[in-house]
Every structure is written in structure tokens, then in C-alpha cells.
Amino acid sequence: MRQVVAFGGGGFSQESGNPLLDDYVLGLTGTASPRVCFLPTASGDADHYVVRFYNAFRDRARASHVSLFRRERGVPDIRSHLLAQDLIYVGGGSLISLLGVWRAHGIDSMLREAYEAGVILCGLSAGSLCWFTEAVSGYHGEVNRVPALGFLPHSNAVHYCDGDRRGAFHRHLQDGMPAGYAAEDGAALRFVGDELVEVVASRPAARAYKLERRGSQILETRLATRYLGAEATVDVVRGCAPGTTRLSIVRQAAA
Amino acid sequence: MVTASRRILALGGHDFDRRVGNDAICDLIVELADSPRPKICLLPTASGDPEDQIARFRRAFSERDCAPQVISLFRLGENPVDLREELLNQDVIYAGGGSMLNLIAIWKAHGLEMILRECWNEGVLIVGQSAGAMCWFQGGITSSSGEPAVASGFGLLPGSACVHYLTEPVRRRRFLRAVASGEVEPGLGLEDQTGALFEGTELTETISARDGAAVWEVTPEHAGAREAELHSRRLEDSRPPIHDMRSDVLELRQTLATRASRRRAGRRRPGRLE
After folding, report:
1. 8 A C-beta contact, residue A51 and residue A102
2. Number of domains present in the structure of chain B
3. Which residues of chain A neighbour B101 with C-beta distances below 8 Å?
């Protein structure tokens, strides 16, 4: 079963003291002692980030990481190592640098192989955007369309809380970008195969959206979200109910 | 119109600390910049923009009355800049060491290869150490994938280069084999704290800032490769070097690693490789 869990933001990287999203992905592995490999490439393999990963996961998983900046000190056979995992967890940072480095080391095809073999892929920020066919990336100032790995045939935006990203996502859809999903910090999209099967959240108010173009209009649908915390039973959306559709006219499409 | 001089200083191994020879090389860079309060920009891409390297760089060049700046491609989100404008505005661009494979992949992904070529043509002095030195040649020997392997560079400079020469015998042997077989063009073996200065595509001078450290010219000969020591200008540190605890420990580790790999492979001094 091919699975991706794409965080709009959150997990140990951004929500210290709130392990809900990390617990959720560990739970999906269905094993008490999952093998989890962290790929910190998008941060330039920042030491402090690797340390935080081990602090968060060493008691709950057989944790490892792969550094592509210091390969001479790491696992000799990255492909076998990745294929042997239950979960591959990709950190945040620069999407463009991440894709460049992965392609240079052939990690993209190794990940494809792991994905096909049933290893669960997850990540936040750049580690979410990378799995989709196109990413709406705001990391380098301007919010641009970046072609990514395309394991999922949708577009994606993360940290979907600011107006810049929303405006850019809508604009790119008008320009022909494939339909896709956006997630706020604390919300995560779980895909099985190409299909979105669930949206979960580590914060009661965190939301995710489906975005598509309908004629000259952009349809942004707020998705039903399951809060992973204790008081999980009631959906506490303020303002609009889950599944509510917002229809926004950005501009007329060219005739 | 005067054509700007295109210069690259390729260093076999250098850091911004005060271990032997590193001070002298920083002084040389400032001298070559030949500008009052030169603007010098570090690109620490090849090692993933680590904070400690950035801090050492800033300290070393601040105390030399330069205007140090750092462009971190991994943190552009926090600090967006116009890469072309910033880089063309520098007197010196210093490419740090690390993974040559990653450096080339990331610079290409960000469109930096063309910008840096433009900077070189416009007379910005390009300095690089280790991966940041080899990338300017046609090829080099990288350990980016673990075992030392041949890698293509940007090709601004003719020939090839191999850094950390003698301190990393496995890398050196791979270089000798590559030159002998024609996998890479003949080139330079650069020891730590040595450098080669190119004007245009001509090697104009080699320098050494440490006792016994040399630059080797490596050419194919019969079925093997020949190493000839080049005469280098000797640079002296202007103040006593400092060996802090940490660098001692690092050196010890390096020595032990070197010994171990020499033991494994059988020691060979420069000369001919059969």
C-alpha cells in the first residue's frame, strides 16, 4: 500500500511538546518498534535538527538518519537502508536545494522504490511539498510553482495561513496548475495511493483545503478534519462547518 | 575598455580558525582583493550552511577590516536576497568546502552557476577551498558519495584538482589512477594550507602556508602518473597560530584516520604510481 502523510507544518520540528502528528504517523506503521529514517536534506543536514529528531524519536522507534552532506560517515548503502524502513520522515527547509541534492544522489528513485514497496513517506513543509507533482513554494521570497517528485498527481501548499500563499495558489490554478491540497500548520493530509483518505490535526483549529479550478473560478473546499488530541470528538471549526465550500472569484480566465 | 582580470584562488584545505597557515591565507585573500574594506561573501553551500563555519568566517574577516557577508541558500526563506545583484557587488566570493556533488547540484538548481561565471568574468576574485576549489576545474576527486570518485566541475579552469593531498591517501590514489587512465585531465594535487592562483585560465602562482605542504603537478606517465612538486611562494602567519583543544582533537582524529587508511593500503610517498 502506497502511503504519504503530508504535514502543512508541525511535528517535532515545529511543535515541541505536541507529539500528536508524530504519534499519528508512527501509529500508521502498525508496529510497536518502527524503523524510522529522517532525511534532513532540506535543512542542509543541520546538526541541531538531527539531534532534535533523535530526541523526539529514539524512545519510540528504531531511529536513524541519512546525511547527504557527509556520506562518507553514514550508511554505506542508502537504498537498502531506505527500503528497510517502516517510515521515512523528511524535514523542512529549502525545497529547491532538497530536490537538487536528491537527484544528484539518486535518492528520488530510491524513494519511489520505497514508496512502491509500502514504506510510509511523511514530512512537513519542503518535506510535504516534495511528494506532489507541483509545489506552491514560498521559501525563496516570491511564491512560485516548483515541479517536484510527482508521487502524488496533485499540487500542494504548506503553512497555508498567510494571504500570499493563498493568492499564489489561486493564481497558479488559474494558470493551469493541477488541482491540489493546501494544509495549515498542524494539519496533515493522509494519502493512500493517489487518494486523500483523511485529514488529521494536532491543533483543534488547524485545517486543510482542496483547491480546484471550475471554469474561470477557483473552488476552495475546507476539508473535514479529525483533531488528534484528547477532546477529539467534536469538530470545533469556528466560522464555517467542515466541508463548507468557499467559492472565490480570483479573476476571469483568459477567453 | 580594460578587461576585468578573471582570478580564481583554489585552496587544498583552509579554515577560518587560527591553526597553522590559515591566518596567512586569509591575509593573502585580503591582499588579492586589493580594495579598501573589501566586500567578501561566503557561500557555505557545500557543507549545508553550518553556523559554526559562518561564525568563524565572520570573525576572521571582520578583524581584517573587511565587509563579510554570507549567502545561505538553505535559509533564503528567512532572508531573501537578489542573488545576482548581491554576488556581482562583491570583491571576493569564497566557496566553502563539503560535498562537491551537493554543491554543484544546489548551485545549478538555484541558477548560481551562471551568476558565478558572470562574477568571475566581471573581475570578482573567486576563492574556494576543498569542494569549493575543485568545482571550478573540469574535474576533481570527491568523497561526496563515500568512497573517493571522479566528479565533473564547472570547467572554468582547465585540468583537474585533488584537495587534501597526502592527508587523504585514498583520495590521492584515486586521483593518480584517474590521471593515469585519462578519466580526468592532468591537474594539481593541493595539500591543506596550499593554493593555486589562476589568472584567466593560466596558473600564475602556487602558495604554501605550512611547513612541508606543497602543490603537486600530476601528469600521466607511461601506464601511471607522475607527481612533480611545484615551487610555491611561502606565506607566514603574521601572529602565532592557536591550537585550541577542539582542533587538536580534530587533528588527532585525522591523523588516526590517515594512519588507518595507510595501514590498509600500504604507504606510498609521492613519486610514480605504477
Report:
1. no
2. 1
3. 104-105
